[in-house]
Write a structure and sequence with these properties.
The protein is mainly alpha-helical. It contains seven helices and two strands. It starts with a helix and ends in a 6-residue tail after the last helix.
Length: 157
C-alpha cells in the first residue's frame, strides 16, 4: 500500500520532510516508522551540548553549576572555575563533533562516558546542591538514548 509512495521518496527528500513514513528491512520484515529528519536528530543532540557548554559553563548562564563543581573535593573555589571552563570547551567541542557525523560510534561513547562520569560525581559529591538528582538521572538517561539513536544514523554526506 505505502510501498510505491515511499519508494518514490528519495533519501534527500525524506531528510527534508519531518516525520514521514519510511520503509526499511528489519529481520526479514518490512517495517514502517515515523522519524524526524536525520539532521534534526543530530542538531537536537548537538544543541544540548552547545547549550550546556557555551551558555551554562563558558558564559556562566547557570551560576549554580559552579557551586556543584566547587563542592567536589580538591576542586573547590581554587580549581572549580577553571574546571568548569575546560568542561564548557569540551562540551562545545562535543556539540561540533556530533554535527559533523564523523565516527558516530566513538562520539556516542565519549558522550556517554562524560555524562555518566559527571552524573556519578555530581551524585557523590554534590547531591545536596543538585535540586533534583533523580530527575537529572532520568533526563540524562533519555538524552543518552537520543545520543545512540544519532550514532546509528547514516552519515550526513
Amino acid at each position: 500500500m505505502y510501498g510505491g509512495i515511499i519508494d518514490a521518496i528519495s533519501r534527500s527528500e525524506f531528510s527534508a520532510a519531518v516525520a514521514r513514513e519510511r520503509r526499511f528491512r528489519c529481520q526479514g520484515r518490512t517495517m514502517f516508522t515515523l522519524l524526524p529528519p536525520f539532521w534534526l536528530i543530530r542538531v537536537a543532540v548537538a544543541a544540548v551540548w552547545l547549550y550546556e557548554g557555551l551558555w551554562c559553563k563558558l558564559l556562566r548562564g547557570q551560576p549554580h553549576e559552579l557551586e556543584v563543581v566547587e563542592a567536589v573535593p580538591y576542586f573547590g573555589p581554587r580549581f572549580g572555575a577553571l574546571f568548569l571552563m575546560a568542561l564548557g570547551v569540551l562540551e562545545v567541542a562535543l556539540g561540533a563533533w556530533v554535527l559533523t557525523g564523523i565516527e558516530p560510534w566513538w562520539c556516542a561513547l565519549v558522550q556517554t562516558l562524560l555524562l555518566v562520569t559527571l552524573n556519578v560525581n555530581g551524585l557523590i559529591w554534590s547531591r545536596h546542591i543538585i535540586h533534583d538528582p533523580a530527575g537529572m538521572v532520568v533526563k540524562n538517561s533519555a538524552f543518552l538514548v537520543l545520543v545512540w539513536v544519532a550514532a546509528g544514523l547514516p552519515q550526513p554526506w
